[in-house]
Amino acid sequence: MGVKVEVHHESRYCYGHPVWLGPQTIQLRPAPYCRTPILSYSLEIKPTDIFLSWQFDPLANHVARIVFPSQTSEFFITVNLTADMTPVNPFAFLLEPDAERVPFSYRPEVASALKPYLAVERAGPQLSEFIESVRGSQPTVAFLLGLNERLRDQIAYTTRLEHGVQSCEQTLLMRTGSCRDSSWLLVQICRQLGLAARFVSGYLIQLADNEPSAGEGDRKTDSADLHAWAEVYLPGAGWVGLDPTSGLLTAQGHIPLACGTTPGDAAPILGTVEPANVEFNYEVTVRRIDNAPSLTSPFSERDWNEIRALAYHVDRDLKAQDVRLTMGGEPTFVGIDQSESAQWNVEALGQQKRSAGLALIRSIRERTARGALLHFGQGKWYPGEPMPRWAFHCISRTDGVPVWENGDLFALESKNAAYGNQQAHDFLSTLSRRLGAEPDNILPAMEPHTEEQEPTGFVLPLRRRQPAGHLAWSSQPWFATPVKFILSVGDSPIGYRIPVAMMPWVAPDVLEYEVDEDGQVKLPAAATRRPEMFSEDPMPDPLPAIPEDATTAQELIRPSLCLSALRLGAIGLSRPGSGCGGDESTSANAGLDRRLFSPARPATPSFQPDAGSRCARGQYAAHVGVG
């Protein structure tokens, strides 16, 4: 299927007084041999009290014959049709061997049927001279194409509203003519050379170029109008259309309505009327139906103007309501070394890219926010990629209060610190004391499908609660302690692999925080150091554990802290659903370097070298991810 178009054609005759109209013949219905699929057609006549009958004339044209039983002061003809502009190849034919060169002769039985289309008018001196200039033996198709183009170049197109057709002598002498004048000249030239030809009237539909090039001939708008052209009968090809106005063969844009041996046979409207003043108007329009917008011109000029007007209206409303917008950029980083390697061009991940990212995030911390917390987490996970990408975050406060003071406590991937499970357990136990949570709730996490007795990491259930109006950390069992706490299969940090079935939905606590004048939660004015808590046993949890039956609870997954010893000998910590990631005093007290993992990005605005940059009051963050 090609582009569908709807053609609307109106012809209006308004008389100065009521008149008698003789029988009218209307040839405005696509001919049976039209190669362009016509999906629908309608003809409306005004006045409506008429007698209308459809018939075929001797040339197989559709003819509507109309008889008027009474006088009328107006005669309106309205045609609506829908066409499928599927491209047509005008060269899709093979000539019979005897017709491959001109001149040639038709077989007697064919010549007898074509006799009306071989009738010639007496040739004047202009026409005779032109015919002699083109006469000669040559390939048939090349001859017709050359003749068609020559008439296009020598006869300047003009619009003539007068009735009738110029003689061939007039057209050649003035070198101007309408489409019907140059088409009739082409018919007569072909007949003088022994080629059967007929005159055709119809619609010409021309669609704008969807993807215009830099050429000057690109059509900018769709158009449709009544048109005329010629057809030549070629053995093996049948009737081949030639449009001398454009110099081209006819294709899907040429919708034939009627053909004839003379222009009068193909007149769109023919009839008689008694003498009267008449005002005549007509219009032909075309519009596309269900047409996909062009990539280069998705909207018409009218649509663009409406979009601009709406945009200005929105801008005025935003300004009146004092709505302020910001925009983030997306700078992209590429490697200076091995810039042509796949990791800097088509692949999401790469060892050099990760090393460069680690160096960049540490450099950002060193140069812009020495009190920032470095966070090494999971980035975006795109459909079709087997693993999620990584993302590095540098989180600091704009008021200068450090989030993490000693950057040496962040583990280096290039350094093996030789830490194992015992150090991971010691770290989590030390951290739980610092938070005032009970370390007895630490669960060893085991890998599935293995006989190993050594845990792969440790999990501490942890959530923020507010007993008696005092914010505190609470650690309570999620469930009856199992004999063996087994993780899901995988190689992601253990915080991603806690079985969902073991993490029931529970109702969240309603926490009240102190806020500033802007409604933002107040941050501590300075680092809070409580070294004495490392040597103290936590107070018993003042709140009871959440019961297992949570069918009426809101959707909140129970949070935890998860630690494991990494392959590089550092301690990895992840915090699914928790608001705490440990602090540097815990690392220092436990004598450990550590890395912080999280299943989610920090819940704060951030600056990301790979995906835009933003700043927010109270925090400044930097992310280096895989773009």
Strand fraction: 25-35%
Q: What radius of gyration results from the CA coordinates? A: 43 Å
Domain tally? 3
Q: Report the strand count.
A: 28
Strand order of the largest sheet: 24-20-21-25-26-27
Task: Outline the structure in words.
- By secondary structure, the chain is of the alpha+beta class.
- The protein has nine helices and 28 strands.
- The chain has helices spanning 108-113, 125-134, 140-154, 168-174, 179-192, 301-320, 351-368, 421-435, 584-590; strands spanning 3-19, 21-26, 38-46, 51-56, 62-67, 72-85, 101-102, 138-139, 156-157, 176-177, 197-206, 223-234, 238-243, 248-249, 254-260, 269-273, 278-289, 373-378, 390-396, 443-446, 457-461, 463-465, 472-474, 485-486, 560-565, 571-574, 594-596, 620-625.
- The protein has a six-stranded mixed sheet, with helices on one face. A five-stranded antiparallel sheet has the order 14-13-12-11-15, with helices on one face. The protein has a four-stranded antiparallel sheet with strand order 3-6-1-17, with no helix packed on it.
- A hairpin with a 6-residue loop joins strand 22 and strand 23.
- Helix 8 (421-435) crosses helix 9 (584-590).
- It is elongated and about 125 Å long.
- Residues 590-627 have low confidence and may be disordered.
